[in-house]
Amino acid sequence: MNNFEQLGLNESLLSAIKDMGFENPSEIQQKAIPLLLEKDTDIVALAQTGTGKTAAFGFPLIQKIDVSNKNTQGLILSPTRELCLQIANEIKQYSKYVKGLHSVAVYGGASITEQAKDVKRGAQIIVATPGRMQDMINRGMVNIKNIQYCILDEADEMLNMGFYEDITSILADTPKEKSTWLFSATMPQEVARIAREFMKTPEEITVGHKNQGNTNVSHEFYLVSARDRYPALKRLADANPDIFSVVFCRTKRDTQSIAEKLIEDGYNAAALHGDLSQAQRDAVMKSFRGKQIQMLVATDVAARGIDVDDITHVVNYQLPDEIETYTHRSGRTGRAGKSGTSMVIVTKSELRKIQQIERIIKTKFEEKPVPSGIEICEIQLFHLANKIKEVEVNTEIETYLPAISELLQDFDKEEIIKKVVSVEFNRFLEYYQKSSNSLQSVSQGRNNSKEVPTDGAVRFFVNLGAKDDLDWMTLKDFLRDTLELGRDDLFKVDVKDGFSFFNTEAEHAEKVMETLNGLEYKGRRVNVEISNNDGGRNGGRRDHNNRGRSGGGFRGGERRSEGGFRGGERRSSNRSSEGRSDRRSSEGRGERRSSEGRSDRRSSERAPRNERGSRRSGDGDSSRRTRRD
Ligand code: AMP
């Protein structure tokens, strides 16, 4: 059975499904819909968010409602206001061709009397958060004594949030002979207890393994020392230029402070936690959905019910106290058939938790080194080159071309290419050269993880150059003396302005890293990294050309070929946000930080951190600058 007609859905629903562009039922839909249509039964369905479970209960519920009867027949309980609104919205879309069917969303933070009025007008389906529902029952504003269907969505989340009492009290107010459909991502004791107490021999449907995370999600961890958590986070963001992520912290305080730091450093970030007012949270979520925010820093509680498709990464800035919570976090990505990545920044003392999580999710984590500064520069460079390749040229530009051509007439094609990409490349390079302290400590974690090659020649990057009064000879002497190596052990010494490259045989690589990193040279802390550039010999470990060729290079290209979803969507949504922020900037307001702690600073101003002034063009019209995304 692999299409909607065969599941037994009626014409009204099939037309709505067609409008929504769903082609094939998801696994949970294939399993739940025929069963629920065929008989009135209780079910326990174990399914992650993003698997299509709203339709799995929504379609059969809509088909079973008697539209000639205005009484409330179906109640859907969901953990958060966000999720409640989302479900209500989906139900409206599914039932758009079902005449006479009315559904109402009931949740805290909005007028209870208005909601009660909507219910009184004849809502056959109520979608509610448990707290508000209980409140309305206590005030006699709803009557659920005759409902036939009760759906508990994300039951584990509702119980996690302390709604046990409300749920049991609401269920006690419903008739015994109704059907209860319980959906949960995990099956902790409390959920099993609800099932035992309130359900009659429920049928069990499982998508994937019990408690197993979404299989579209790959799990990675990055081992760092505690003080390198934040620099590691920034590097992960910089190494993923298209990141659209939720960053989880353990406390509200950390959430706020990490978001603030990210904003300070020029990232499109915002905080989401319980100390914000509902209006502030709504504003943050609106910006996040609109993709004006790339990094939503959130607590577990506040992030519950975030059902945003297309989240590319979940970042566990800190692991949750309750290991089970990891499943919920990682389930925010890899939704609706797309793939996603859950990254964990861990310290040595937390490694044991990774093993515990692996047992729960029945999936292995991949240990990865925090990307080095030079890797990030490369990624950003190819990201830009890729963007240049794909950008649509607006005909408006023709007006300016003669003047621009004249301005650049002294440069040949190669020089122009170099200059264009340097605009972006230099910012990252300068930044990562300057941040040698944090680079060093993070890359030590990386070096611990078997990154040092064992054979062939190895090319190194060092943050010393002509600026430090070095030329190839003096640098070679310095290296030879410091490393106690022979004259022929160092070769291909190539000194640039702010940095240099040199080669050694692999047998010396560890010594190079250990001896030079952290050393002071004329008051500057030395930072050495293994370079991807092979310096003309076969010493590097990666092949730039290959990356460039494989579908557009680096992550932007890879992502597009995987799911094909982000490029277009994100570009367009960002274009609109760009329009807005350009207006603000050109009106002289530039950066604006709202009370929710989000920044409207343009992402083009991100990585050069603290160099915004220098990027402002002389004519003061920042809107002419290129946006990074
Ligand atoms: P849910 O798990 O219900 O939150 O659904 C996640 C997303 O998948 C929502 O945006 C749905 O609209 C979408 N969706 C649900 N079912 C299907 C389907 N059969 N085909 C494509 N998308 C779907």
TrEMBL record:
Q: Where is the DEAD-box RNA helicase Q domain?
A: 2-30
Q: Which residue ranges are recorded for the region named Disordered?
A: 530-629
Domain Helicase ATP-binding: start-end pairs: 34-205
- Residues annotated as domain Helicase C-terminal: 235-376
Q: Does the keyword Membrane apply?
A: no
Q: What is its EC number?
A: 3.6.4.13
Which CDD domains does the UniProt entry name for this protein?
Answer: DEADc, RRM_DbpA, SF2_C_DEAD
Task: Enumerate the Pfam families for this protein.
Answer: DbpA (PF03880), DEAD (PF00270), Helicase_C (PF00271)
Q: Which PROSITE patterns match?
A: DEAD_ATP_HELICASE, HELICASE_ATP_BIND_1, HELICASE_CTER, Q_MOTIF
Which terms are listed as keywords in the entry?
ATP-binding, Helicase, Hydrolase, Nucleotide-binding
Q: Name one GO molecular function term.
A: hydrolase activity
Kind of enzyme, top EC level?
hydrolase
Q: Cellular component terms, GO, for this chain's entry? A: cytosol; ribosome
State where composition is biased (Basic and acidic residues): 556-629
Q: Does the keyword Manganese apply?
A: no
Return the motif ranges for Q motif: 2-30
What does the sequence similarity comment in the record state about its family?
A: Belongs to the DEAD box helicase family.
Q: What is this protein identified as?
A: RNA helicase
